[in-house]
Design goal:
366 residues, alpha/beta, Rossmann fold, 6-phosphogluconate dehydrogenase C-terminal fold, Alpha-Beta Plaits, 3 domains, four-stranded antiparallel beta sheet, 13 helices, 12 strands, globular
Length: 366
């Protein structure tokens, strides 16, 4: 299967990043797209990502070899109904959402099993929209492919090659297994982060002291609670069964932890903490996972006038744009830590190298 023309329906963070990544890796491909918001289409034309922008889902997609559906599941299903009588029989249709079972059921009902393969690039950000898309967002991320029982082998191989060409790591999985795995390592953490933030919000003092002092570990583990509420409401509805299964398991683990704390069972607590520490330590650090990685760097500073200004001047001199700054006040040492938020992973790595060359101690929070 030769891929020459690729279509995109939805140019948000993931759709836009896919399009930009393919443009970088395969500059001769023809990329066409449709997006409900005209502004994203205009931006994609102006930056050279798209060759053509379409006003509607129609005959303009008839010549595509691959079409990426990058909208919520319900929208993707409606789009496939529109595309069914338009696209060629050998056109690969793929939906890149993080829940696969509902879309696979719809594909069977529509009779499109011979030309559909689900896809899920396991990378993201708390930020949304084409403006935050990047041609490096998906690099070193696992790209899960979920073929149907009828997906042709050459179509799967072509999809795998396309995913590899943009720097991702394709893995083939059953759609139900995919949903169970993502429920555990992506969906549950988001549910927990939202619940934990709201737990602290409700317990906060009248003068908001918990919110004021929250930093370090609390902000690290709840960072993903800044993600889109609309998207996560949809995901929780679409993957309800798998999320409930792992959520009940988590509730059981919390209950045992509660009993150990109440009973002073230090041996149990230590064993749980140690096993968790070891398991997390065995996780690969070089690959991007299902949760968006922080694009923050930490810089140790001496407590002296102008220290922050010097750091910003160094970064500015290297044309590195800083998105946010935070002074970490809850340290026991007399020196401070400046947490700097950058736009993306590439910029964060560049900033680290620039500051390290100037003898600053710079590190990431793993």
């Amino acid at each position: 299967m030769k891929i020459k023309t690729v279509g995109f329906i939805g140019l948000g963070l993931i759709g836009g990043s896919l399009a930009k990544s393919i443009r970088r890796a395969q500059p001769d491909m023809t990329l066409i797209g449709y997006n409900r918001s005209r502004a994203s289409l205009v931006a994609a034309l102006e930056d050279g990502t798209l060759n053509q922008a379409l006003d509607a889902i129609g005959d303009g997609f008839a010549g595509c070899d691959v079409i990426f559906l990058c909208a919520p599941v319900e929208v993707n299903i409606q789009c496939m109904k529109q595309l069914k009588d338009i696209v060629r029989p050998d056109c690969l249709l793929t939906a890149v959402g993080s829940v696969k079972s509902p879309i696979h059921r719809a594909v069977r009902e529509l009779g499109l099993s011979c030309q559909f393969i689900g896809g899920h690039p396991m990378a993201g950000s708390e930020r949304v929209g084409y403006a935050n898309a990047s041609d490096h967002l998906l690099e070193n991320a696992y790209f899960i492919l979920t073929p149907t029982e009828d997906s042709p082998e050459d179509m799967l191989n072509s999809y795998r090659e396309l995913a590899e060409s943009i720097g991702t790591l394709p893995v083939v999985m059953d759609p139900e297994e995919h949903d169970r795995v993502t429920a555990a390592i992506s969906h549950l953490p988001h549910v927990i982060a939202y619940a934990l933030v709201n737990c602290v919000r409700r317990a906060d003092t009248k003068d908001g002291m918990m919110r004021k002092l929250a930093a370090g570990g609390f902000k690290d583990i709840t960072r993903i609670a800044s993600s889109s509420p609309d998207m996560w409401e949809q995901i929780c509805r679409e993957n309800r069964g798998a999320i409930l299964d792992i959520l009940r398991s988590y509730e059981d683990a919390l209950k045992k932890m509660e009993q150990a704390i109440a009973g002073g069972d230090g041996a149990y607590l230590h064993r749980e903490f140690e096993e968790a520490r070891r398991y997390r330590g065995d996780m690969p650090q070089s690959y991007r996972g299902s949760l968006p990685r922080s694009c923050d760097i930490n810089v140790d500073l001496y407590d002296e006038p102008g220290a922050i200004s010097v750091v910003l001047a160094i970064l500015g001199g290297s044309r590195i744009n800083v998105q946010n700054l935070e002074i970490m006040n809850n340290r026991e040492s007399q020196d401070g830590v400046l947490r700097i938020s950058l736009r993306d992973e590439e910029t964060a790595e560049q900033a680290m190298k620039v500051l390290q060359r100037r003898s600053y101690h710079v590190y990431r929070q793993e």
